[in-house]
Amino acid sequence: MTPTARALAHPSREEIRVEGVLHALSDPMRLRIVRRLAGAAAELACSRFDLPVSKSTSTHHFRVLRESGVIRQIYRGTAKMSVLRSEDLDVLFPGLLDSVLSAVDLQAERLGED
Q1: Do 86 and 38 contact (CB within 8 A), yes or no?
Q2: pLDDT in tens, 5-14
Q3: Which domains are seen in the chain, by residue range?
């Protein structure tokens, strides 16, 4: 399927590579997005994220996460919704996402962050 203005390109499960996932997870803003998605009961609109960066930088971070296979994004009306691809990541790299999220939680606790 060719991406259009309303359909976004995502790697298939087989195309997701560990180095791409690790790169995507290496940025504090992207980790913040992933942490929020991991705690969400459902997909979240990009506008629900209050990131201390410009809109264009925020868009860049979501794109890196999507293109690496960490998140899936779809349009619902005019809202771009994001969801963590936990099942895909757990099949490909068992325990990786849980380990990273646990480490982020411990670090936040240690540093007195939210």
Answers
A1: yes
A2: 578 899 999 9
A3: 14-100 (1.10.10.10)
pTM above 0.85, yes or no: yes
Which whole-number Å values give the CA distances from 65 to 15, 29, 82, 84, 96, in the listed order?
A: 14, 11, 10, 9, 15
Phi-psi region of 113 (alpha: psi -120 to 50; beta: other; left: phi over 0): beta
- Going by C-alpha positions, the residue among 66, 56, 55, 54 that lies closest to residue 30 is 66
25-48 residue pLDDT tens = 999 999 999 999 999 989 999 888
Strand partners of residue 79:
76
Instruction: State the DSSP H helix or E strand holding residue 109, giving kind and residue range, or none if neither.
Output: helix 96-111
Helix axes 55-68, 28-38, angle to 10 degrees: 70
